[in-house]
Amino acid sequence: MQIAIILYPGMTALDAVGPYEVFRFIPDAEIRFVSNTPQPIITDSGVLVMGSTHSYDETPNSDIVLVPGSSADTTTAMADRKLTEWLKKVHETSKLTLSVCSGALVLGAAGILEGHPATTHWIAQKALYSFGAEPRRDERVVKSGKIITGAGVSAGIDLALSVVKELYGQERAEIIQLLIEYDPRPPVDAGHPAKASASVYKIAKEEMLQAAKNPRNIISVPAILWRKALKKLR
Amino acid sequence: MQIAIILYPGMTALDAVGPYEVFRFIPDAEIRFVSNTPQPIITDSGVLVMGSTHSYDETPNSDIVLVPGSSADTTTAMADRKLTEWLKKVHETSKLTLSVCSGALVLGAAGILEGHPATTHWIAQKALYSFGAEPRRDERVVKSGKIITGAGVSAGIDLALSVVKELYGQERAEIIQLLIEYDPRPPVDAGHPAKASASVYKIAKEEMLQAAKNPRNIISVPAILWRKALKKLR
Fold first, then answer.
1. What was the pLDDT predicted at B221?
2. Which residue among A67, B2, B114, B127 is least crowded, i.e. fewest CB within 10 A of its CB?
3. Are A175 and B200 within 8 A, CB to CB?
């Protein structure tokens, strides 16, 4: 079971790391972090670096492919023809094609969501229409054929557990849930627009739009420039 | 507000990335990923690399310090005198000292948990006694003075939100919860030993002990060897 998790500059780390932490406890899983070329990738905070291990070319036939979202700049990934062409191709033979958060818009840009119900981060729900998808804003995980989309950021954990439950059964999903002690007890209760106060929603929306306008240090770092990249991070 | 998140070889990525994704939406936060020297750090899966940005020496006075756990090898971090001496020192002046998962054992090894109630991953609860701490196995987040410990892996998200609530108020915690759409809906319900079946608990325990016996590719990678490291990752 080869699982390809896409990394791109400006992505949101938890979108990828949540599912990764679930999938890595699948007994026969081979997880790859995939980008155009193997390299350090700076995430949307401008401070956390994650490493991709394989190129698209080296990864033509993954069983599962997952695209994370970005709070800073999803449009560059959407416009990245190498990425979208690769997604189209790998989707033809994948068992499951997944997105978390605004990663759904990247699937959309690759023409994969046409005619499918889907979800994404609450701030990006309307954008799904542009790709012929049907937004399901109140659902955390939406399955349509072999496409499964998750809501914002933290939803990737629920999405990955539901994938494990489907492919490997309830017991394996429970084992992994216990291994990562996923027994959530949030100290506040505003995790969805339907639950948040008007003022919390307004501020969150403004901050999200602001983040997209002012991406911080979101650059692609050639591997050899790791030390130079560190200087930029500071 | 300087927040230092420790990275060490073999650590569990989500232990760090969950809290990071919360803390980065604190308006005045400066987040640093700290290790002995800035370098790529291979996590416990042997495949995900995260980058540290600062050394211990460069980071003597953080306001918040967070130590993640490891499913593969917490003992090396516990025995790392550079790390534990630094923790002791930074704890003297920190506003808050935090751990997620078996990161609590590293705090313990630094002598920080003596006499304090604390929690950790369910598999490591008894080990807390060795450091003079009082295990609270049914609590997800335990606060004792300025020390806050979280349960296993995913508990870091709840821990970080409770920190934000305490330091910045309920509204900021709600805004961040909404930004990361943290409205958990796990598709199964076995996230704590008290909820898991006997067989799920038994298998999870065996797999956890097995992981600790057979760490995969957990090595420290000099920055300049990034490309060579990639070869090892494959």
1. 55
2. B114
3. yes
Q: Which of A28, A32, A47 is nearest to A219 (CA)?
A: A47
Per-residue pLDDT tens digits for A154-184? 999 999 999 999 999 999 999 999 999 999 9
Whether B207 has its CB under 8 Å from any CB of chain A: the answer is yes
Output the CA angle B230-B80-B85, nearest 5 degrees. 130
Alpha carbon distance B47, B35 (integer Å): 19
Percentage of residues of chain B with pLDDT beyond 90: 77
Closest alpha carbon to A14 in A59, A65, A48, A53: A48
**DSSP type of residue A201:** H
pTM above 0.90, yes or no: yes
Whole-angstrom CA distances from A47 to B55, B61, B80 are 14, 19, 25
| Distance from the Cα of residue B123 to its chain's centroid | 15
Chain A interface, mutation test: which of B33, B48, B123, B178, most A Cβ atoms within 10 Å?
A: B178
Q: Which domains does chain B have, with CATH numbers?
A: 2-233 (3.40.50.880)
Chain B residues whose CB is inside 8 A of the A191 CB are 177-178, 180-184
Residues 44 through 83 of chain B touching chain A, CB cutoff 8 Å: 45, 47-51, 53-54, 71
Cβ B171 vs Cβ A173: under 8 Å: no
A 131-160 residues inside an 8 A Cβ radius of B: 140-141, 151-155, 157-158
Contact A190 B178 (CB under 8 A): yes
What is the per-residue pLDDT across B50-76, written as a single tens digit (0 to 9) for each?
A: 988 889 999 999 999 999 999 988 998
Task: Determine, for residues A190 and B201 on separate chains, whether the beta-carbon distance falls below 8 Å.
Answer: no
Sorted by sequence, the CB contacts under 8 Å of residue B17 that are 6+ apart come out as A13, A14, A17, A48, B50
Assess whether pLDDT exceeds 90 at residue A228: no
CB contact under 8 Å between B25 and A207, yes or no, is: yes
For residue A63, the tally of other CB atoms under 10 A from its CB is 16
pLDDT recorded at residue A37: 85
Q: CA–CA separation, B181 vs B93, rounded Å?
A: 33
Asked if B94 contacts B67 with a C-beta cutoff of 8 angstroms, the reply is no
The whole-angstrom separation of Cα B111 and Cα A26 is 36
ipTM value of the model? 0.94
Choosing from B78, B101, B107, B112, which is the catalytic residue? B101
pLDDT band, very low/low/confident/very high, at A215 (cuts 50, 70, 90): low
Neighbours of B147 (CB within 10 A): 21
Q: H/E element holding A200?
A: helix A198-213
Q: What average pLDDT does range A137-165 have in this prediction? A: 98
Interface contact B54-A153, CB threshold 8 A: no
